[in-house]
Design brief:
The protein is of the alpha/beta class. The chain has helices at about 20-30, 40-55, 70-80, 110-130, 155-175, 200-210, 220-230, and strands at about 10, 35-40, 60, 85-90, 140-145, 180-190, 245. The structure holds nicotinamide-adenine-dinucleotide (NAD).
Length: about 260
């Protein structure tokens, strides 16, 4: 019997089969969870729907997390279909491409607000709509990166957004802990995905992360997925407000200090 058997969970943020959210989906499906998904726009629906159907899902709805009306509508559909929710995975981020290439000091107000809104506030917006559907023992999870606590070349405003996301994880965990709901983040090492392709010189980041890690390699979507399953399951019943690194040991700092 899988560790998520009998649980219903939302996985937000699949763009394609390279998405970290798809790695999480495969693990959660293998562990017995019933899953629901969102997609951003018609173009991505064509990618997401077949993936969702391949894991037996019948809950696939549009959701742009920057729009409160869409958030209300999405979670109303979840409540109507399932009536309850055992876990929520938030695997969503966005920043203007130029803001990930230009010097950080040139970040515009608009790029800052958009990155923080979609990549950090949206976790709070989802949590406040998901929590009323959750009973004690439920769990929420988001995806972060080391750029939250270190200045990583080209990560720029997204690093600031991840710092806000990690702080939000702790405050949500504090707040929702009184209801027995756990809230954690995974800080993943760099993985080649659609979102990652927007980060300037991502290839160099990948190779430095592999060389500087204890395992001397990059991590995979599947490894993030397996760690996610643990954090979403009852096995992690005493774990909340945590940022859990899945980065082959890079953040432990055995690599060259200059290698990020
Ligand atoms: P991805 O492109 O596959 O996923 C990003 C998702 O965000 C997409 O599905 C996209 O549709 C969604 N999204 C963007 N704006 C949205 C909006 N307004 N409303 C709804 N959805 C929206 O890339 P990924 O790398 O799998 O990213 C998933 C998460 O993992 C992100 O938070 C990212 O920062 C984080 N992360 C990625 C890496 C990496 O190296 N790839 C490392 C650590 C953390």
């Amino acid at each position: 019997m899988g560790v998520l058997e009998g649980k219903k969970g939302l996985i937000l943020g699949i763009a394609n089969d390279k998405s970290i959210a798809w790695g999480v989906t495969k693990s959660c499906h293998r562990e017995g969870a019933e899953l629901g998904f969102n997609y951003l726009g018609d173009a991505l629906e064509k990618r997401v729907r077949p993936l969702a159907e391949s894991v037996g899902s019948t809950l696939v709805e549009p959701l742009d997390v920057s729009d409160d009306a869409q958030l209300d509508d999405f979670f109303a559909k979840v409540e109507a279909k399932w009536g309850k929710l055992d876990f929520l995975v938030h695997s969503i981020a966005y920043a203007d491409k130029n803001a990930l290439k230009e010097p950080f000091s040139q970040t515009s107000r608009q790029a800052f607000q958009q990155a923080l809104d979609i990549s950090a506030y949206s976790f709070i917006a989802c949590a406040q709509r998901a929590a009323p559907l959750m009973a004690e023992g439920s769990a929420m999870l988001t995806m972060s990166y080391l750029g939250s606590v270190r200045a990583v070349p080209n990560y720029n405003v997204m690093g600031v957004a991840k710092a806000a996301l990690e702080a939000s994880t702790r405050y949500l965990a504090y707040d929702l802990g009184t209801q027995g709901i756990r809230v954690n983040a995974i800080s993943a090492g760099p993985i080649r995905t659609l979102a990652a392709s927007g980060i300037g010189d991502f290839r160099t980041l990948m190779s430095k992360a592999a060389r500087g890690s204890m395992l001397k390699r990059n991590v995979t979507q599947e490894e993030v997925g397996n760690a996610a399953c643990y954090l979403l399951s009852d096995w992690a019943s005493g774990v909340t407000g945590e940022v859990h690194y899945v980065d082959g040991g890079f953040s432990g700092g055995v690599g060259d200090p200059g290698e990020v």
